[in-house]
Amino acid sequence: MSNRKQILQLQNSYNVMSSDLAEQIIKALPAEQYEITTAFLKGKPGEGQPVSAAGRSVYFDFNSKQLKGFRRWFAIRKLLRFCRENHFDGIICHRFKPTHIMLNLADKLDTKAFISIAHGFGDYDRSYRQKLVNRLIDERWCFVGVSKPVQNYLIKTTSSMSEQNTVAINNAIDIDQAVAIQLSRAQARSELGLPEDRFIFGTIGRLVEIKGHAVMVNALAEIIQKYPQAAVAIIGWGEEELNLRRLIEQLGLQDSVFLLGKKEEAIKYVKAFDVFTLPSFTEGLPLALLEGMSGALPVIGTDIDTIKPYIQGLGQVCKVGDSRSLAQSMEYFLSMSPVAMEDEGRELYKALCERHNIDDFREAYRDLLEKMLIE
Questions:
Q1: Which pLDDT value is given to residue 62?
Q2: Quick check: helix, strand or coil at residue 174?
Q3: How far is Cα 51 from Cα 375, in angstroms, rounded to an integer?
């Protein structure tokens, strides 16, 4: 029988990429000491899609209705049987839904450590969620924010989270791996079908309102007459796609805004952009920002407290939700020399290497889990 600690990482939906936080945690835990199971509540890979680096992957393949209301108790009971059969020493929950399930099951399990990772803001805005966590957490729980502001949000929002059981571990990416898989500018533009002669402000992210893509499109409309070479490219998909397409058509930007859809390992394509642009209204600590920095690209980001501190003095900061402010940042780069842009990109890459070292990230999760399992 194996003496390795049994660890479960529970995630809401299947979505495996090498840069994912969950995959980096797997790499943090030595295989001779830990046996990792990755489980997904919803979804499973199709043919040719990537699988987790964990020793075992489990796909419960629940549908959305099975995870809501009274129906979710079927899923909860199934997870209870699964956890009892596997005797996990530690369970890592990503986002609220897996955390919610494990909060309901924790008193029925002999698991020593529960870690809940909040990837952004909003998970505990609802009062019933605050009451749930306040009522059900015990000394076996630790909550992790992917940045200091997210940690502060957790502590401020719930009375049961404190400096003693809530920590910040900044998001990071494997920079060497990211650089190794990135395509050249020409290759990336060719594969994405982007024109070679346009100056492209690009971004990566789900097409949802809080990502600020409409602000980015409106900003382009303000400068397109003066800078007809300017364009916007967005890698991602989501519920706002139809609204964005309507806005693009309304502004007559069909030839200047490129909605590229979902791409596996989107980080491969960052060098297709001239400037990485992040117009988000809210973020935890965006991996997309770190991915743009890994491509040694100049960056524009909004002045929210999970973007501004990471690029201030290095990139352009614009007012959140303000298309005029974003347009001014775009003009700043459109009037800049190529050499100056390269210099700015190199400084951002240097800052990434200094501040978001993947080894520090992995060590932080390894130390946290080891401490919780010993206590």
A1: 93
A2: coil
A3: 33
Q: What is the pLDDT of residues 355-370, one digit of tens each?
A: 888 999 999 999 999 9
Same domain? For 219 and 334 the reply is: yes
Residue with tokens 């001239």: 274
Q: What are the beta bridge partners of residue 233?
A: 202, 258
Tell me which residue of 332, 305, 304 sits closest to 316, measured CA to CA: 332
CB 347 within 8 A of CB 310: no
CA-based torsion, 342, 346, 347, 352: positive or negative:
positive
Q: What angle do CA 310, 312, 317 make, to 5 degrees?
A: 105
Domain count, the chain: 2
- The yes-or-no verdict on residue 2 having pLDDT over 80 is no
Q: Which pTM was predicted?
A: 0.84
Burial of 233 (0-12, 13-18, 19+ CB in 10 A): buried
My answer on whether 207 and 349 are in the same domain is yes
* CATH for 298: 3.40.50.2000
How many of the other CB atoms lie within 10 Å of CB of 239?
10
DSSP three-state, residue 168: strand
- Residues 318 and 330 sit within 8 Å (Cβ to Cβ): no
Cα 199 from Cα 300, distance rounded (Å): 14
Axis crossing angle, helix 127-136 with helix 96-105, rounded to the nearest 10: 40
pLDDT, the chain, mean: 93
Domain of residue 38 covers 5-172+357-374
Best CA proximity match to 25, nearest among 7, 41, 45: 7
